[in-house]
Amino acid sequence: MNKRIGILTGGGDCPGLNAVIRAVVWRATQYQDKVIGIKNGWAGLLNCETMPLDRKSVGGILYRGGTILGTSRTNIFKDSSTANLAMKNIKKMGLDVVIAVGGEDTLGAAYKLSQKNFPVVGVPKTIDNDLAGTDFTFGFDTAVSIATEAVDRIHTTAESHNRVLVVEVMGRHAGWIATYSGLAGGADIILVPEYPFTVEEVCNAVRRRHDAGKFFSIVVIAEGAQMVTKKGKEVVLSSKAKDEFGHVRLGGIGAVLAEKIEDETGYETRVTVLGHIQRGGTPTAHDRVLATRYGVEAMDCVKDGDFGKMVALNGTKIARVSLKSIAKKIKTIDRDFYELTKVFQY
Ligand code: F6P
């Protein structure tokens, strides 16, 4: 009764974050608990930047993309001084619980906080859908819808010009967006981080289509796809700078591949990089509902005193898994599912 609950959104933004915030606030109000918005992810704990949240302030945000709290890739466990400051500020703010909405990094920090015996609940968020412990993260469905529409549009222009069109989508460690949007959009070749590719096999697939009288091809490639060369497996980076969780910035594999396809086959090739378009804008109905269910369940964890948990989707049911069980794990595309994409290659 009358708990003070801090909620933060961390990592890359994602459609549906506001739906989670709204659901947490509504459920907390039912339980007569108070919700405090921590601004800009974990950074808000270091700077004591907060905003009060109530039913009024979360009005009209259900369908809005992004996050009204702001987000960052700040890591409170970067070193002992930031960790101590965060713990000190949690006390200063009088927080009883923190609900952390985020991906592997944000929830990794949440797990470390729970190891310090502070009550934490995690909510899984990422357009990449690569979080372990849950069948789906919210944001993924929206990203897939956007990428599928892009592939559909690419299709007509590729066909008109007899071109190879390479579409680069997000997906750092896993090819969920590439596989779903590629299958939904009828892509001819789908390349994902889990299964490295060679330029030769891609070119051969394109040539087979050409020989069969299909003079255009669509290749959907995840940004983290690995190209096998004489030097080994290569990923393409857009920047070597690392964020506070040690991640480099990926991007550019589509352009590298497009150039090689054109050089090897002689077929005119272009690249389209979807980038942050996949993360922006209004969430789909599916993501709004999933995010709402997660937000309500997160507050129910608080009510039950069930901490150190992440809310999850197990089939069609909402579940709870321990933050420990998902720490440092990634959910990847299994081989059988990936092989399905090859059924549609000549
Ligand atoms: O983690 C989600 C994600 O969209 C990845 O697919 C991508 O590599 C990364 O975020 C991009 O992050 P940023 O917004 O920092 O460029």
- The residue ranges in which pLDDT falls below 50 over 5 or more consecutive positions are none
Number of helices: 11
Q: Could you name the CATH class of the largest domain?
A: Alpha Beta
Biggest sheet strand line-up: 3-2-1-4-5-14-15
Strand coverage percent: 15-25%
Question: Which cofactors or ions or other ligands sit in this model?
Answer: 6-O-phosphono-beta-D-fructofuranose
What is the number of E strands? 15
**CATH third-level topology of the largest domain:** Rossmann fold
The radius of gyration is 22 Å
Give the SSE string.
EHEHEHEHEHEHEHEEEEEHEHEEHH
CATH architecture of the largest domain: 3-Layer(aba) Sandwich
Shape label = elongated
Computed structural class: alpha/beta
The description of the largest β-sheet is: 7 strands, mixed
